[in-house]
Automatic annotation (TrEMBL):
Protein name: TetR/AcrR family transcriptional regulator
Keywords: DNA-binding, Transcription, Transcription regulation
Pfam families per UniProt: TetR_C_13, TetR_N
InterPro entries: Homeodomain-like_sf (IPR009057), HTH-type_TetR-like_transc_reg (IPR050109), HTH_TetR (IPR001647), Tet_transcr_reg_TetR-rel_C_sf (IPR036271), TetR_C (IPR011075)
Source organism, top-level taxon: Bacteria
DNA-binding region: 32-51
SUPFAM superfamilies in UniProt: Homeodomain-like, Tetracyclin repressor-like, C-terminal domain
Domain named HTH tetR-type: residues: 9-69
Keyword Transcription regulation (UniProt): yes
Keyword Nuclease found: no
Length: 202
């Protein structure tokens, strides 16, 4: 909801920022509407004026997270780096997130664990983000050569998921280093596979 000047409502912004902090740090199911209302310093009526229910607020929370990640990736793509450097830059942005203070894993994996029903709007929001990310990585890898990019992209996403899931359980530095090395191995394997394909077709 926006004001007459087209600005996002201050109450809505406060509700989203409060919900984002609490959902991410403490878990979605463990945080009730009353807690969000108190910490955002708004009334329940105000909350329901902006969000019909808690599920709607959760979906908006995930959509905000999705837009933030898309913005990071779009900024990397806009730099028009060589393809391998683009993938490394995306990987480094993931590593930076893992090393950031207060990191609690992937917001989308966390939400999917709490909402496993694939028909639920929250789960659908998770899948929409993951489909976009997988498609983006596939498109990047497709520019590296003739080798099929889909399998390599799935491997990248799996490595990313593993790094995000374990990055909050112990020292993030060796996890990030392992992730970066995995990306280097993936790039080498993908390029070599393309070379082998070209040789076989010749």
């Amino acid at each position: 909801m926006t004001t007459a000047r087209g600005q996002v409502s201050e109450a809505r912004s406060k509700l989203l920022s409060t919900a984002t902090r609490l959902f991410y740090t403490e878990g979605i199911h463990s945080v009730g509407i009353d807690r969000i209302v108190v910490e955002a310093k708004v009334t329940r009526a105000t909350l329901y004026r902006h969000f019909p229910g808690k599920d709607d607020l959760i979906v908006y929370y995930l959509q905000e997270a999705d837009q933030a990640i898309r913005g990071q990736v779009d900024a990397i793509l806009a730099r028009e780096l060589p393809t391998s450097e683009t993938l490394r830059a995306i990987a480094e942005s993931i590593a930076e997130g893992i090393r950031s203070p207060g990191f609690r894993g992937c917001a989308f994996l966390n939400a999917a664990a709490e909402y496993p029903d694939q028909a639920h709007p929250v789960h659908k929001a998770v899948l929409a983000h993951r489909e976009w990310f997988s498609r983006t990585i596939t498109d990047v890898l497709a520019r590296l050569g003739e080798a099929p990019a889909e399998l390599a992209a799935r491997r990248f996403v799996l490595m990313r998921d593993g790094a995000m899931a374990t990055g909050c359980l112990s020292d993030p530095e060796p996890i990030c280093e392992t992730f970066r090395q995995g990306v280097e191995d993936l790039l080498r394997l993908h390029v070599d596979s393309g070379a082998l394909t070209d040789t076989a077709e010749a």
